[in-house]
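Hi, here's the filled form for the chain we discussed.

Project: internal
Contact: R.S.
Residues: 500
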Amino acid sequence: MIKRYLLFLALLSSLSASTLHLSTSSNPSRINPILATDSASSEIAGHIFNALLKYDKEAKNIIGDLAKNYYFEDNKTLIFNLRQDVKWHDGENFSAKDVKFTYDLINAPNVVTSYTSIFRMVESVEIVSRYKLRVTYKKPYFKALETWMMGILPEHILRNDKNIMSSPFNTHPVGTGPFKLGKLEFSKNIELLAFDAYFEGRPKIDKISYHVVADPMTRFLMLKTSAIDMGSLQAMQYERQLDEGFEDKFQIIEDVDMSYTYLGFNLKREKFKDDRVREAISLGINRQELLDILFFKHAQVCKGPFHPKTNAFNPDVKTPTQNIERAKRLLNEAGYDEENPFSFEIATSNSNSIRPNAAVILQHQLKQIGVEVKLRIMEWQAFLNMVVFPRNFDTVLLGWSLGITPDPYSTWHSSSDKSGGFNFIGYGNIEVDRLIEKMQLQVDKNKIAQIQRDIFKKIVDDNAYLFLYIPNSITVVNKQIHPIEPSVIGIMHNYIKWEK
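And the returned structure, exactly as it came back:
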């Protein structure tokens, strides 16, 4: 009788448990915050791990996460006082040794991570006590605080791991975050379970269920049928493909996205070393037509590498307009004509449903200047491992997220042109390097902004990337979920308080 009653209670509990259903277009490669380079890994790691610091709701202030508070002893020395109530998902206590271990791991010679460049200005990390750290920078650094917005790893689990790059930890992560990994079924389902001992309080949502769905149309149909609770809409879907009553079920939130799409040249290949060729291709593109076809009114032309809402944006830089005659003339000067046409390949991934269509439009537009374009569209992981990382491409059609405080070092500085670096197009400009290095040492916000605007112009002038578009972010959320509070940093900043 008692057993039946307990079974009844367990069944009742399972029926009342709240689940947030989400989707991801690809399998996570490494659910490890210092190794996560793809969006699926980064998003899931964000639920599982915490950083020392984070932005507040309006992104105007940097506040503590694992750090209880922080202060500068001088312009090169940062002190962290850590929270003493944080536990890892396995019940062990978080402490300063985890932070020191993570820093040392990032700088280990056998670890390939983009965070190496982000931490390049750190001279040392010293454990003062169990819950106190001293970080010393080589020089004053404009992003000293933002450096510590990456996830911290558990020293007690990984200290004896010989190879973090292929560690089982990357698919069996243990963090301090509001959710812990419950189930990982590749190409099917990923379940995250609320962490009862989370230091900010247990999330009110009991489970997050990620459905791995590569096909964007299937994800859209799942959204329309409420099989998933939250997702993004493309402009075409928003304008033409929503059923009557959709807005009765979903709240729609639209804003300028914090990302852009670009066509990047492999500057190591001889054919793209000629400035005239890159400029000709840029002048062969009708960016506004690209937007009109793909986005209706839900996007804007991208003018350069920094977001138009930040002080780093340079309003004096004009968008290139299509000029077919000048493009043909430049190609002729570079030695190309109808008998010897310029040709190249655009490689992109089908994980973003817009970009393959954008590639087709670019192919059509560039025919008008006599350029032959081939397309290679691949699954995301294959695209990364076979094209991007080994630099096996003519051009890539890709996108970057845009930070609140942009740091061009990892993408545009010549020293980031290395294995594992984000400067995989091989860009190098001595003047841009100098400006980036100068910017790093500034603490005056106005001086930083002026230098960033100069960097902006020089990068655009070099045509290493052809900046194409910034889409609007159109997010829809099940109206059963509350409280939803739109923010500069996204709607999920308060998701541990969500109820469904």
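Let me know if anything looks off before we file it.
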